[in-house]
Amino acid sequence: MPASPAAVATPTAASLRARAETLLPQFRAELAELVAIDSGSTSPDGVDRMGDWCARRLAELGFDVARLPTPVVDGQRFGDVVVARLRGTGARRILLFGHMDTVFADGTAALRPYREEDGRAYGPGVSDDKGGFLAGVHAAQLILESGFTGFRELVIALTPDEEVGSPASGRILAGLAAGADAALCLECARENGDLVHARKGVADVRIHVRGRAAHAGVEPDRGRSAAVEAAHLVLFAHSLTGARPGLTVNVGTVRAGERANVVPAFAELFGEVRAATPADLDWALSAIEARAAAPAVDDVTSTVERLAVCPPLEPASSTALLSTAVAVGAELGLAVSAAATGGVSDANFVAAAGVPVLDGLGPIGGDDHAESEWLDLRSVPERVALLAGLVLRIAAG
């Protein structure tokens, strides 16, 4: 039978850090194992090998572990969601979450194997997010080794498709978050050590433009160029950047026509809108739709599709948790601060479920998605201790 909270002294921040220091060699060895597994988002077998490792490790710690299959999305199969649960004796339910997938193709782990140099670890996914969720596993280990059970439930959720916008796991994660008292995202800290207290929302947009084809040499006047209209739309969309604080619009791909001697009858644009608030996100999307409905080229029509929409993580969702993290950091001699970023994470979906959330609680890392991606191994003990201490504070209310 687990000891009651009254029977077990809450470990100090210093003791958590000391234990995390002794576990650093194990962390490094496990990180090397994880980086050696190719786990690109669209490689479900590789992601599930990651899931096998995580499920086994968490079960060894005493968690009840389940594998939740994800739906096929637009013909693409994704890996399972790994969910580990541990019941305690307290009142608060706490969710830790990270992701097992990377942006790298199969074979990358063999081409760029794990290595260490000057206190840093290198390899595909070492920071985003293998080092991050591994820190969550080690924080859980510190808590359980201490005998502390003062939470109602400690849940660790690891998803398979965050790098492509969580199309298969987003709803599952939001469901797991529902009813949680707090959620802590295991993405790694910024390069300067900042946590993340705000993230922009993002909406993907596709615009279809229809004109009329004609021979470009014989009778161009009979044509209605979808390409010209598309050019106007690109310029308009980009002109919205900065119209609201933090608002950015980017048209990433443009395709029109098939031959140089034909006035193009079709064009397609694909882009994204990022904004700090839901209102600004909707304002920009509505502006694009209104402009598409009023073409600059006669007899050309455009339709706008709002594709995936990810809501922003607003600072208000993180305020109380950030204050608690600052207090725990002070006990560790660590100055904790937080930043806003334009990048999206699964924290956006969790915040949209109405759950207080704080992001960037993994070790310090950088150059995500690049060949030079790195993790600062020297930051691991203090960040694991910070995460464990934060869980203890939340559980204590």
TrEMBL record:
Secretion signal, residue range per the UniProt entry: none
Keyword terms: Hydrolase, Metal-binding, Zinc
InterPro entries assigned: ArgE/DapE_CS (IPR001261), Bact_exopeptidase_dim_dom (IPR036264), Pept_M20_glutamate_carboxypep (IPR017150), Peptidase_M20 (IPR002933), Peptidase_M20_dimer (IPR011650), Peptidase_M20A (IPR050072)
Domain Peptidase M20 dimerisation stretches: 198-298
Cofactor dependency: Zn(2+)
SUPFAM superfamilies cross-referenced by the UniProt entry: Bacterial exopeptidase dimerisation domain (SSF55031), Zn-dependent exopeptidases (SSF53187)
Keyword Zinc: yes
Keyword Ubl conjugation in record: no
PANTHER family: ACETYLORNITHINE DEACETYLASE, BLL0789 PROTEIN
Protein's recorded name: M20 family metallopeptidase
Species of provenance: Microbacterium insulae
